[in-house]
Design goal:
129 residues, alpha+beta, GTP Cyclohydrolase I, domain 2
Length: 129
């Protein structure tokens, strides 16, 4: 019996609230429908975020992403909708969602959506010799 898709994203407490660290989640099999033709659009999503108080639970994220398989969305709209849902749930210090859509009619589309908490600044990267 298969697990049904779900719009319910879940969280768990950030185990290191005193430290800024980055979580990267790659979702290589994102699918939605073209709102014009009804044909499937395929994308690879990369979610990067610096958690504040909570982190996203991965199984709930997988089931949430599955919901889009039967819905029609423009690339720009679906990327920003997913970002809005994640930011609303997680309230991260920083988040970036990159959606790399596969070729359709000879055109590739990449949509990048970002969020920053007011006043949060990215730490200076360490460069080792």
């Amino acid at each position: 019996m298969s697990t049904p898709a779900s719009k319910n994203l879940e969280t768990f407490p950030n185990p290191r609230t005193g430290r800024d660290y980055t979580i990267r989640i790659r979702i290589p099999e994102f699918t939605c429908l073209c709102p014009k033709t009804g044909q499937p659009d395929f994308a690879e999503l990369l979610l990067e975020y610096v958690p504040d108080q909570v982190c996203v639970e991965l199984k709930s994220l997988k089931l949430y992403i599955w919901n889009y398989r039967s819905e029609g969305h423009f690339h720009e709209a679906v990327t920003n909708r997913i970002m809005d849902d994640l930011v609303g749930l997680l309230q991260p210090k920083f988040a970036r969602l990159t959606a790399e859509f596969k070729v359709r009619g000879g055109i590739y589309t990449t949509v990048v959506s970002e969020h920053r908490q007011p006043g949060w600044e990215n730490p200076t990267p360490v460069s080792l010799p």
